Amino acid sequence: PRIDLYVNSTSSLLGNRMMNLESSGVGINMSTGAPTEALDVNGNIRSNGNVTISGVFKGATGTVCKIHILPFTDAETGNSGGTSFNNVVTKTFAKTAGTNLFGEINMNSEIGGFGTDKFESRLVLFGPTGGTSIIGENYKQNYIGHSGGGTRSSSLTDCAIYTNGTGTASSASFNIYFQAKRVSADDTIVFKQGFFKVTEIWA
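-> structure tokens emitted (203 positions)
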């Protein structure tokens, strides 16, 4: 059984049904039809106050689900002077089921000495044990033609990674790693504070 609410401008018994309350436990339906959720609205929603949710807004494919900003300090980063990729910094975040991930990093760095130094860096996304593991493209950082002593500083903003359908169904804690290595350099690159930005996009 249910209770139907009708709106009518005439004296007839029934008019246009605007809402029905389902006693089956399914939910409340606005406009006509049967609800499939606790609140099922066939039309636009308007509010002049705040809307508070504890979950996420489920949007169309390609729309943003949520954005994670994951800051880190100088003390959390490592250096890179070896010729193999090593983990410089990592952060953990909770992924929503049904999303692709787009990861970025913004961080500062310093190199001592002078001359030509070449490094490579990349981002890695790692899901639950035995699950998703994606290695991003290698990005080159070339420091050429510097002379004199002291240090050279720079910022790294163009390193990114995209899951593109891999691990979409997963809903668990994910790690994002920033890795770096020396290609041809006689100096060590010292990484500084910064942040990861991970955008979840509905698949």
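The radius of gyration is 26 Å.
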